[in-house]
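debug: dumping io for the single-chain case to check the tokenizer round-trip. Nothing else runs in this session.
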Amino acid sequence: MQDFRKLDVWAKAHELAVMVYRATERTADRRYPGLVAQTRRAAGSIPANIAEGCGHHTSGEFARFLQHAVASASELEYHLLLAHDLELMPVAEYARLEARTTQVRRMLAGLINKVRSRTVSTRGRSKQPSAAPAVTSTDH
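debug: decoded output
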């Protein structure tokens, strides 16, 4: 178990969620309230899944929740694209949010690889579950 606040990827994901909430708050066109709700939910799910994964005791469980965070990032990426194609947000704002989403997804992929490689390397050594690694930064 570890403190999710110490993970760079969680901090970036949290910033992304805040950015998405602010961007959708300013959305002038309210013809698509479901899209706004789904976009916000996907954005909030990314750091929430990272935090939840940190609350588990094994690396395998941690990696599983990180994978859920990746799936939420992919969902967010689509909702942003849809909002862009419906002309619901300025092009520059879409580009900024899409770039941050891609960055977070890549950071998550790197962390998943690290967690899984540690899980594989420790399997033969002990029958007790290994704790999630205390990773404070990931490749950007």
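debug: round-trip ok. Helices lie at 8-25, 33-54, 59-85, 91-123.
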